[in-house]
Amino acid sequence: MIDPHAPAPPGAPPRRGEPGRAPLPVRPGTGRFLVLAGVFVCAACGLVYELELVALASYLIGDSVTQASVVLSVMVFAMGIGSLAAKRLRCRAAVGFGAVEAALALVGGLSAMALYAVFAWSGGDWAGVPAAGPRCLLVAFSLAIGLLIGAEVPLLMELIQRIRRQEAGGAVADLFAADYVGALVGGLAFPFLLLPLLGQLEGALLTGAVNAVAGAALVLGLFRRDLPTRTRHVLLAVNVTVLGVLALAALLAGDFERAARHAVYGADVRVALHTGVQEVVLTGGEHGRPLGLFLDGRLRVSGSDEYRYHEALVHPAMSGPHARVLVLGDGDGLVAREVLRHPGVRRLDVVAPDPEVVRLARRDPALSRLNAHAYEDPRVRVLTDDAFRRLREVPARLYDVVIADLPAPGIGDSTKLYSQEFYGLARRALAEGGRLAVHGGQVTRRRVFWTVEATIRSAGLRTVPYRVDGRGACSAGGPERTVRGIHPEVTDWGFVLAGRTRPALRLDPAAPPPRSLTRESLAADRRAAARTRLPGLPPSTLVHPRYAG
């Protein structure tokens, strides 16, 4: 007679109703493999949700370091709370895991669309606080996704132990090995596959669908005999509903993105594209409407007054020898236009990070007309490269003028372009008597601007700071205000002219006079900047950036 309470032979399928063992349709070894495969997929999806929130928040709010810190810290905290809360579900681990995965797929899949919708249609501001809407929603999604990801671990541990009991340390090692490998795959898939091929919205929706399918397949396939019939039907209906919502959102994503883009930029959008570097949007430029160039949601060029910024940046630096000029960051061609107004220029090298912006500057009728077809001049050579890396390769004392037309300083990707090391490389590239011109943000942001000036001085250069009234405009330069008001409007543009010896702040008499500058106005601009000076500020370096706030 067979004892029904005797343990099953090794490798045999568990008997239905066996104490402590889940009645599986497969062998225990196969069941463990399937659970670990589910861990792998769910971990990959969880990391994609994290990266998607960081990427979209950096685009909408700015300051990628801050957004990454907020998302990751809130999510890790929430994961701990979720793990504690899931202890109560261990007695019903299969149905609990199925419900958690369905909720995670819905919340994570729709997070990008919801965040973008709040940014586009609320204007970003709540109760008069800039960016309050996107920031609050970012924290809410980070908290919700972290809670659900944290709840997975104890439930999966219970499921894998119900398949075949093993020493706790071995079970934890297997579980976390699959989890970490899945996180690696998700972390690589996001920037190299999902983002370039599908974009942020569709990428998040596809990830949610994969998450829902993986969770439902594991619970309804492997542990279906452990669930009552009604529970199976409810879980199936919930997951079908989640997949239906995600599929509907995917079908509407194109119309949603166009409507949101119009809500952000207005109905005058002519070009909108995602490059490998950023999102590029062109508005206006036809029928008498001023052209606007937006990079990652921030206005970089306003055709109505961009000349005032570019003239102030370029013309003082060109007073002196200027046969060889290097421009860093001028993908739109507007700095090059001003440089080429000086008859002594024989060579102009432009280093731009995004080849798509350069292509638009050459081919878009409105933008090429605004830059006076500067890139068609035979003296111009355009290189698509990182400004820091390019400066490291430049031979010593090659250029008479170096002009840095770069994103405004802040804690993020632009920090290294305002570091002591960067200005040391720029000094090495300058010929005797050469000048460096730098846009340093708003002088009204006194600590940031004067830190730029102190950092340039720390690299062995003598400086002449000056400011130009921004008149509330948001043209090229910065700090780049987002259209919907995420950043305050520009009240002024601050510049620093520098050289091995102190350069004179004047205009080149051989060039056509600029529309917005005179010798007298430059003298007044220098005095206006000097009145705001903050002495004693330390320089910013690669390992100790000082542009927060």
TrEMBL record:
Gene3D superfamilies: Vaccinia Virus protein VP39
Ranges of compositional bias, category Pro residues: 1-13
Function field: Catalyzes the irreversible transfer of a propylamine group from the amino donor S-adenosylmethioninamine (decarboxy-AdoMet) to putrescine (1,4-diaminobutane) to yield spermidine.
Record has ATP-binding as a keyword: no
Membrane topology reported for the UniProt record: Multi-pass membrane protein
Record key words, sorted: Cell membrane, Membrane, Polyamine biosynthesis, Spermidine biosynthesis, Transferase, Transmembrane, Transmembrane helix
Top-level enzyme category: transferase
Primary location group: membrane
Full protein name: Polyamine aminopropyltransferase
Active site (catalytic residues): D405 (proton acceptor)
EC number(s) from the headed UniProt entry: 2.5.1.16
Transcription regulation is among the record's keywords: no
Compartment(s): Cell membrane
